[in-house]
């Protein structure tokens, strides 16, 4: 089994870092992590994808990758363009695409936007992104603009010890200690205060926590899903997340031209907590 190694590429989004298994002559597989996660999200799953050139970038503003300029915004479109920029920098013309949560929403958009580039689409806890009624447009814009105006005053939380940050992630996302440790160790950076005391802060861009200025309606999201041509394999945790009830995820899956949906008992990060379950499903799908 090839170990995951650091890589960097220079793109129009800045220098993007990530992890790669080094199988450069194998079929290409681009893996996109979830919101406030990073490339380490795919370390547990990597052994089941050893037959592929697995590349897991830290998306802009996450992990070791550059933050977007102050005038730019983090959106699904910019995330999809950044993912494509990684593939372009690597010289990939066609590739399989894998995404978890926000990374799955980003992958959904990318597959719809450039179907000629994406072979098979693999999704974990995602198909499209969150939607909301059109009546929320004005309220969302006001919330987003207020957040942008106040972001400069936000103070980063400083952790005295990495173990504290690990416990925070465990509680926030219902993660086991080993899984939380993987994400935290890549997602944290040392800092020294004015008094000389050392600590650690999240190195993700604080703007990632702001309200998005725009969100698609459910009708728009369903139109996007219909535009996905790639054969698609989804795995969802059971019970379903409150924001994506089982009925909705099955309705969306039914819009795909070629899609298969699986559910397995687990939590939102089931690809990290139960990599064998997810890995066997995806390995069989990719080989089929």
UniProtKB/TrEMBL annotation:
Residues 29-133 form the AB hydrolase-1 domain. The keyword Oxidoreductase does not apply. Keywords: Hydrolase. It comes from the Bacteria. GO terms for cellular component: membrane. InterPro entries: AB_hydrolase_1 (IPR000073), AB_hydrolase_fold (IPR029058), AB_hydrolase_sf (IPR050266), Epox_hydrolase-like (IPR000639). GO terms for molecular function: hydrolase activity. SUPFAM superfamilies: alpha/beta-Hydrolases. Pfam families: Abhydrolase_1. Gene3D superfamilies: alpha/beta hydrolase. The keyword Hydrolase applies. Belongs to the AB hydrolase superfamily. PANTHER family: MONOACYLGLYCEROL LIPASE, SERINE HYDROLASE-LIKE PROTEIN DDB_G0286239. This is Hydrolase, alpha/beta fold family. It comes from Lysobacter enzymogenes.
């Amino acid at each position: 089994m090839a170990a995951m190694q650091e890589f960097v590429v220079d793109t129009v989004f800045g220098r993007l870092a990530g992890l790669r298994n080094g199988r450069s002559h194998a079929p290409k597989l681009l893996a996109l992590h979830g919101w406030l996660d990073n490339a380490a999200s795919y370390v547990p799953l990597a052994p089941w994808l050893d037959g592929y050139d697995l590349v897991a970038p830290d998306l802009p503003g996450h992990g070791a990758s550059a933050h977007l300029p102050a005038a730019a915004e983090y959106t699904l479109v910019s995330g999809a363009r950044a993912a494509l920029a990684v593939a372009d920098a690597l010289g990939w013309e066609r590739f399989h695409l894998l995404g978890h949560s926000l990374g799955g929403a980003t992958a959904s958009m990318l597959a719809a936007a450039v179907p000629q580039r994406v072979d098979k689409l693999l999704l974990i806890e995602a198909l499209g992104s969150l939607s909301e009624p059109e009546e929320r447009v004005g309220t969302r814009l006001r919330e987003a603009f207020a957040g942008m105006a106040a972001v400069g005053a936000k103070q980063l939380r400083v952790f005295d010890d990495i173990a504290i940050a690990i416990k925070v992630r465990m509680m926030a996302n219902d993660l086991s200690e080993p899984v939380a440790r993987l994400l935290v160790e890549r997602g944290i950076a040392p800092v020294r205060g004015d008094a000389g005391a050392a600590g650690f802060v999240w190195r993700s861009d604080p703007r990632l926590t702001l309200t998005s200025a725009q969100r698609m309606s459910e009708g728009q999201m369903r139109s996007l899903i219909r535009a996905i041509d790639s054969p698609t394999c989804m795995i969802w945790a059971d019970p379903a997340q409150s924001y994506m009830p089982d009925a909705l995820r099955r309705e969306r899956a039914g819009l795909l031209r070629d899609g298969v949906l699986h559910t397995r008992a687990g939590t939102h990060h089931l690809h990290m907590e139960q990599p064998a379950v997810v890995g066997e499903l995806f390995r069989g799908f990719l080989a089929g």
